[in-house]
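From the pipeline queue, job 12 of 40. The input is one protein chain; the requested action is below.

Action: predict structure.
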Amino acid sequence: MTTEIATIPTPMIRQQPETANDNSARKLNVLTLSSSLLTDRMLLYTDFLATLHRAADVKLWTMSARQSDATANLSATMNGAIEPMPEIKPFKEFPYNYLRRLNDLAWDFRLRSPSRMSKIKHQPGFKNLRMRALKPPARLLAALGVETILENRLEQMLLNYPRSPEAELRLRDLRPDILLTTGTFRYEEPAIYAEARKLGIPSLAFITSWDNVSTKNRMVFKYDGYLVWSERMKQELHEFFPYTKTAPMYVVGAPQFDVFFQPRFHQSREEFCAEQGLRPDLPIILYALGSPNFLKEHHGAIYLAERLLRGELGEAQMLVRPHPLHDNGREAQMLSNFGDRVVVQRTGQTGTAVPARSQDEKQIKEWINTFRHADVVINLSSTVAIDAAIFDKPVVNLDYDPQPSRADQQLIEDINHRWTHFKPIAESGGVWLTKTPAETLEAVQTYLKHPELHRERRRWMAEFVCGFLDGRCGERMAESLLEFTSRFVSKERNR
């Protein structure tokens, strides 16, 4: 385990000397928050909980617990110690949301992050009248170098805004020794953290994706310690949030990929293909889609499906995988006329709000074996490139907008060649960057004949992003939490 421990703990932490009596007096009381199926599966299907349970009583508050089917699945793993997330209210537009947006822009103009500056230039949300009006004062604040003062004052304002009275009551009753939050950049969890902080409950923040630091809006609240995937993410966190340099930092890897190394989830090709309606004797071309709210990738899948049916890819078949957070059935409908050579998975829970979605073991098994048995993976600058690389599957990465209008062409080029998190992958030599649909066709054809191409660089990609590829990241995450707690946090309840 790689750790970076500050010589001076952050002010909120109650530092106590460690003694044998402290270690044996009682189990820790740990509260974990999860507001996405992407973190639910990380907590449930790794050794995180099993490792933590040896020294702690653990309770999980999650958005997906509001569904009865998800609750049954989660409760079995958590021994019933699961509760729905408390009710949460939004901030008032003025002054709270106004100042949050102003703070984001002030830091953008101060740090000049390639990813964020590209988003400001290309994404529609930054082009409305409200955001345009914020840019001049944000530039002025950045030029004056007062963005830190603004953020510190904003943090105090947001802490004092009662977004979740229910969370306060439940925290007072539970009184955990430590709070683990896995959604510092999301809507829900910061509201609960704010109540925990006012009660003096120490916190660990897990940065749960490699793009969070460089692409998301500001993480206004300061936490007592941080968990990250890799040394690269640690460096980015220090760069974007300088105060984290004096906080405990643990590099634990990417726990969601631990399931890839668990044989209990592995299926034979014959069994997987039978479930998916595929032929095990034909190559599987996997087209993995991202969020339709971001880029319109389905046009590329339709193009490839058309070429497949024309015989331009030989005897092959195509499996289309929508993003599980955003699958609403549209992709299945759009690709329904291509016959049994084009299969569309149903990865999401149609009709269920995105934060409340979950995945059971069957869906986890489908996710893993989709990449295990794919022969070529096509994507547009997403984390599935890493999913594929872990299983040593050739990756075709689009460097063009598949929409007929090509409206997002410059944005896509920026993602591949400017955005902080993806540029090293796109330019690593581990993916085949294609500039046109015809090049994509050529890349797929070549990879089907020579899957060994770019193998060493694919391995580099996976190690660079994930930090560890040993299937023990959940265990490492739990051990880091326990080490942080024993070293910096009193094990006695508040008196």
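Job complete. The first strand starts at residue 2 and ends at 4.
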